[in-house]
Amino acid sequence: MARLADYFVLVAFGPHPRGSGEGQGQILQRFPEKDWEDNPFPQGIELFCQPSGWQLCPERSPPTFFVAVLTDINSERHYCACLTFWEPAEPTQEAASAEDAADGEEELEDGGRMRLSPSAPAPASQLFAPKTLVLVSRLDHTEVFRNSLGLIYTVHVEGLDVSLESVIGNLLTCTIPLAGGSQLDSVEEGARTISLGAGDRQVIQTPLTDSLPVSCCSVALLFRQLGITNVLCLFCAALTEHKILFLSRSYQRLADACRGLLALLFPLRYSFTYVPILPAQLLEVLSTPTPFVIGVHAAFQAETQELLDVIIADLDGGTVTVPECVHIPPLPEPLQSQTHSVLSTVLDPELELADLAFPPPTVPASSLKMQDKELRAVFLRLFAQLLQGYRWCLHIVRIHPEPVIRFHKAAFLGQRGLVEDDFLMKVLEGMAFAGFVSERGVPYRATDLFDELVAHEVARMRADESHPQRVLRHVKELAEQLYKNENPYPAVAMHKVQRPAEASHLRRAPRPFPRLDEGTVQWIVDQAMAKMQGAPPAVRAERRSTVPSGPPMTAILERSSGLHANSARRLEVVRNCISYVFEGKMLEAKKLLPAVLRALKGRAARRCLTQELHLHVQQNRAVLDHQQFDFVVRMMNCCLQDCTSADEHGIAAALLPLVTAFCRKLSPGVTQFAYSCVQEHVVWSTPQFWEAMFYGDVQTHVRALYLEPPEDRPPTQQVGEALAQEEPPSALDVASEQRRLWPTLSRAKQQELVQKEESTVFSQAIHYASRMSYLLLPLDASKSRLLRERAGLGDPESASNSLVTNSMAGSVAESYDTESGFEDAETSDVAGAVVRFINRFVDKVCTESGVTSDHLKGLHVMVPDIVQMHIETLEAVHRESRRLPPIQKQPKLLRPRLLPGEECVLDGLRVYLLPDGREEGAGGSAGGPALLPAEGAVFLTTYRVIFTGMPTDPLVGEQVVVRAFPVAALTKEKRISVQTHVDQFLQDGLQLRACTFQLLRMAFDEEVGSEGAELFRKQLHRLRYPPDIKGTFAFASGATHTPGRPGRAAKDKGPSLRTLSRNLMKNAKRTIGRQHITRKKYSPPSWEHRGQPPAEDQEDEIAVSEEAEPSTLTPSAGLKPADRLTLSSLVERACCRDYQRLGLGTLGSSLSRAKSEPFRVSPVNRMYAICRSYPGLLIVPQSVQDNALQRVSRCYRQNRFPVVCWRSGRSKAVLLRSGGLHGKGVVGLFKAQNAPSPGQSQADSSSLEQEKYLQAVVSAMPRYADASGRNTLSGFSSAHLGSHAPRARVTTLSNPMAASASRWTAPRGKWGSIRVSGRSGGPGVGVDVGSRLAGRDVLGPPQPNGAPPDSGFLRPQRAALYIIGDKAQLKGVRPDPLQQWELVPIEVFEARQVKASFKKLLKACVPGCPAAEPGPASYLRSLEDSEWLTQIHKLLQVSVLVVELLDSGSSVLVSLEDGWDITTQVVSLVQLLSDPFYRTLEGFRLLVEKEWLSFGHRFSHRGAHMLAGQSSGVVPIFLQFLDCVHQVHLQFPMEFEFSQFYLKFLSYHHASRRFRTFLLDSDYERIELGLLYEEKGERRGQQACRSVWEHVDRLSKKTPVFYNYMYAPEDAEVLRPYSNVSNLKVWDFYTEETLAEGPPYDWELARGPPEPPEEERPDSSAPQSRRRVVWPCYDSRPRAQPDAISRLLEELQRLETELGRPPERWKDTWDRVKAAQRLEGRPDGRGTPGSLLASTVPHHRRSLGVYLQEGPAGSTLSLSLDSDQSGGSSASSSRQAARRSTSALYSQFQTAESENRSYEGTLYKKGAFMKPWKARWFVLDKTKHQLRYYDHRVDTECKGVIDLAEVEAVAPGAPTMGAPKTVGEKAFFDVKTTRRVYNFCAQDAASAQQWVDRIQGCLSDA
């Protein structure tokens, strides 16, 4: 039984002692006057009676009632029921208030009453003072308190005939039963009826279970006032310990709201400040830093505005205000949405029916009290779902004398799948949950509704989730139980209490509330006390039982099963791998290991690993060999690396006993355990992990203590089980049983059990001190860098820090003197930190577990000794382990594939490939996998530097990463310091940059060492810069000689070739020797002196009269046999073939030419005597004699005098090239023209020779005007433009009309447009040329986008020859108007500017480190700074201008620098733009061979190929040219037969030194080494491809990779590309890379997509997916996704192979398809044949490759548009009609389809120079008068041609050595030509005769 009321108090208004503005409460009387022993009188009641302050008021107010709550120092709540009424103030009170009013303060009071002020009129009546009746109780029966105080007030007011003393005495002596009424004997006892002796009757119902809160209607009211969302917000805020403040004008509402909120928190109890009604005088409490739930009157709202971290709930306004700085975590989904949904259904039952067409009759809504219970039931369900299975995570640490229980938070969160959930994490860490664990964790106690719900109803709740009606039914069931708990006997709940009459407070009371007689009241109380003492004490019979645990927990939200669909397969892989390891099948284990490491990302696989490893531990120990140990450690590390510091899934807990079990013997007496290799994980330095582990193990041992007698306990318990075993009885069951038995045990037995438990905890503490020292002390204490980075072991603040990735905290000593013991512990920070960490742990767990202080002191003494012993053990282990290879390396290095002839120089050095500034490979902002950093090895071969390895990020999988570049391409190598997380022990790094746009940033592994790294650098340097050309890969591959010694391969060459080389060299050296005696002129230095600067500035001293040696300069009629052989070889070179094609002349049988032709082939340089860097045969004007050329050559740099290199087929204008002029050349000629010359000096005479030569060039042109008709650009007005209809040209892509209009509006000078700023110094016209070239009145306006003006801009009066020269050389020149040539001085960039620009381009495209500001802006800025595109722009601009001049009929001489760099670029581009032949594969090869190789571009010098050129660096002139070609290719994709890949291939291999083609600086040097004629087909031995062209040919037969399918050329089309920088694109050759296989330009090394490993292949039953992920920087996109035509050709080849037929060559197939398409294009068999890509597509569509996207009708490829209206041109249609068809151009280049085959068959042919007989397919072509031969019948590429015009005789032949044996003698015949005799052999005599007849027939027809 309990007292209903502890105290009754009468409080009245009294003046404030300091005379302040308001009064104060005074306790007039209190009963009983003495405090109860068990419950002292609460202080400060008078403040709570009037929370807004004590004030007088001018009128009588009705009585008020509210219940305030006071909390005492023991956290017990006292309920103060206050009934306040007003009485007339006594005179003393009035006087006091008058004094107060004199202070002149005026304030508004809470109820709207006004205090008196001097200005207010005095009230007619008197003032009224408040008086309060207070009832203080520890029970919460609001209605009973309201009725009882109301009764006392009624007796007073109504003057009832009842003694107030007796009523109050009865009230104070009234007792009621404790909670749990159902356990009492009768209804009367459970529902106690009381009477206070005034004719009243009240029924008090006590709750059935006192742990369930009583809420009446408070929860329902709270929801009505604030709404669902706001209440849920407050609910989460209270649980996560935020400050909550309620505001209302009603005190009772405040009290109800606070009570309702706390009722929702059940089963958790709110344990912070709880003040439902806060008095005004205590408002400063709101600034407390601790959480609270407080109610404050709305009048004080202003005072709450400054609170920054308080959530304010306005009950009257229905709002909840959450400050910005407060984050309230929401409930985890799906609980949040489910709860919200159920609450809305409970509060508004008609919500579900609102949309129904025929709603059912409305269901009567629940009463407010019932709705209150339903709302609470929803939250009860919510807590049951949140905390389901919580009992499985309780650790029973002690059972006796009192249970000590700990909760394993991490395991609970992990198993519920809520590790990341902020809400639950904060709830579990809060005070309320700690109280919940200590109160409800007890295994043996009384249970309530929540215990039943969480144990038995969770499955039902989960099943009901998707059925709202079933959920509602469950809620109503729970609500019934809650309602019954509060109202167990609703039938007897009838009250009878008198109330005062209406408006009784307005009547004048007969008298004030009387002073009561204390004696009477005390006597009544004493009487009752005496009666109570006589009665037996009422003992509460508590029914205790074992608390049910319920089913094991499940995840709150089932994850989608798709993620773990193959988990069974993965677990199988893990099991197999472990069994292979322990069976010693290491090869099998190695195969499976990568798949296992990938599988270990999954939780199930990690758990499986720990279980499997447990099976292999015998007697707590498992000794392994080194390989097994490595495998086990790797798998453990992989498991642990994803463990968080809390170890939610118990993986680290399960591995902890294993790391101390697995070991290996290092040497006798030295054993290394696995723990020394798995220390680098955050979990080991987290105190919470160790505490949970400790409590788990203690629970296991305490449980074992009670399960069976200690002496016969089998040793099967695994030390270190994290959680209680699941088979019955569990630890909780054991503890419950022991708690039940405890009172029955004897005192001695109880003491014994307590001691046993305490010693169990103590022994575990010692065990854990050892375990912690194992995992916290590093193997090598000197690695302090590591220790410093690990978690905060040194300071208590960071000891619980979880998100750490390193080892021990605090400062860690560099070394530790183990001899010194712990007296010197200050010097050992490692040991000190560990000891402090362990001591803190021991203190905490032992204190919580009740270990005695003596034991604790003993532990503190033992810990340093344990650590010290372990350190000494580790020293020996560390010493021995260093002798072993390090753990955790890849078991095997991935070896790269090598080319034939490529040899390894340095085998794999272990390195890490680090990410550079490119984001793609590192998975940066662009996304994609983090392929870098990668772990592997670098290999150095004779040809390449190759890295192969695998990404260190295990998530990326087993992708092999390859990055390689040719050694020859290395441009810069620098050491770098590596700051990386890959491995903490990396020593040094190396950054290698290549001119093929590759970058290797490597960090050498510790095992390589600095010596290994230095050796790598030296070998790399030796290979990059060999002492001579013989040391390069192109020469060394396949040869056995060492560099510097002549190789054996040289001896195998035919004697004739050797004689030729010897003759050539002898003659050349003799001639050049003479030149060196008389002229100090540049010549390429010998091998010993390569790289020294040439003497370019020496004076020209040779006399004009000096004649050259007759044998070198006489006409070629009297040549020696050796010279004749030389000439025949020269004739076969590319130059001569091209000269012949251009009609510039051939060397006939008589070696003389008809005088009628303007130009001739001169053999003057056949011995390279005049100019070493020119080819042997040159085109010169017919009128110039060979002996004059010697003199002319002296005027030009490097003797490179002007020679013709190309002639326009249409205008017959010629393009010439030469070196720059010497100072005394043309410039001197022009300057001193009018000066009198009494006698010719040497300089004058050479100038005259030069002038004559230029005159001869001009005279040789067919249409030049005589001197009287002035040929110049001057005087040409732009007004003339009106008469010319401009050609239809591409204007712009976006708006052709606007662009064509703009063409006419901006008349700028043509040459003026290529002026350049001095900064870039690119090619541009000098300003001093004057308005004649630069003015507006000279030339037509240029096109937009940098295209030149139309071709009509030059009028017929023009110069016959324009000399484009260097502005610096032609400075101050005044051309004479009588000359027929004109000088065009331009500024050119020098080689050093190209070099500087290229360096910047490399850094822009392949940055060494990430940009400071990520994003494209920094890349574009650095690209602009490089000025590379500006140089491309200038080259294209100059080239297009030259093309225009040539097209208009003027010849051009390009005479820049030394004539081998920019000159070569310009003349090559001009020919490419002007002549469609050079845009074919064969033509482009010819162009490069002629202009770049024969005309002596210095490839070796510019590529720094040899040691001597190391200082000059790489100057990529040829690469710049290829980039220009690429830009043109982009704008005219249908004009080129070759693809973009072909250009990239050449760009890569011109720098790679794989082929001999791009080695050396001139033909002269190639002859000197015997290389020049080696490439001819008949003379080449069976060796690897030495020529890049031959390699391209071979590849072209196999694959169309070099072919452009869009090739459909216009006949005689001159290309005029846009050249503005805005029209240029950065070549993707600079930016793309393929990490799967390295650069794709060594085609033999390219692989197809790798097969998936065995364990990753999907099951055969599963559908096979053909999808592949293509990573941009990893896979080769053209191979992963080939274009449609390549795919079809591959498919065709595959199908033919499957059918067993020899696959047809792709080119034959393609040609057949095109031929068929051509035939389909002729509907009536007539008309012009169309191409696959119609040649009638308008020019601007064709040229820019946009014909598929543009225009309404341009949707199909073969569409023909008649005229180009969008171009604004009227002449376009006629121009297109005049063009020849595409097929005609094909026939010009002799494709297989267009050949004329008069007769064909197989013949054996004798090779030249001791070569064997070979069977070839011969074709006799009457039309072309040729005998061609091929490798075989279907070959489309001609291997050789015999021109029948050169055949002198066809005669029977004789068999020679090596001829076919089975053939008769008459089958042989010979064909004698002017150049050689061909030996043939037919199959028999008849076919031989037939061939002879056919050939002679052709000859006679001719």
Topology:
Blueprint: E1 2-3, E2 7-14, E3 24-31, H1 45-49, E4 64-71, E5 77-88, H2 91-102, E6 128-137, H3 142-158, H4 164-173, E7 175-176, H5 187-190, E8 191-194, E9 202-205, H6 218-226, H7 228-239, E10 243-248, H8 251-264, E11 273-275, E12 292-297, E13 310-314, E14 319-321, H9 335-347, H10 368-386, E15 394-398, E16 404-407, H11 409-416, H12 422-429, H13 431-440, E17 444-445, H14 449-456, H15 458-464, H16 468-486, H17 518-534, E18 545-546, H18 567-583, H19 586-599, H20 603-615, E19 622-624, H21 626-641, H22 651-659, E20 662-667, E21 670-673, H23 687-707, H24 731-741, H25 747-776, H26 784-788, H27 829-849, H28 853-881, E22 904-913, E23 934-941, E24 944-951, E25 961-966, E26 970-976, E27 989-994, E28 998-1004, H29 1009-1024, H30 1033-1036, H31 1055-1078, H32 1110-1113, H33 1121-1131, H34 1134-1142, E29 1159-1162, E30 1178-1181, H35 1186-1193, E31 1203-1207, E32 1214-1218, H36 1226-1231, H37 1242-1259, H38 1296-1305, E33 1324-1325, H39 1331-1334, E34 1361-1366, E35 1381-1387, H40 1391-1405, H41 1416-1426, H42 1428-1447, E36 1451-1455, H43 1462-1474, H44 1481-1494, ...
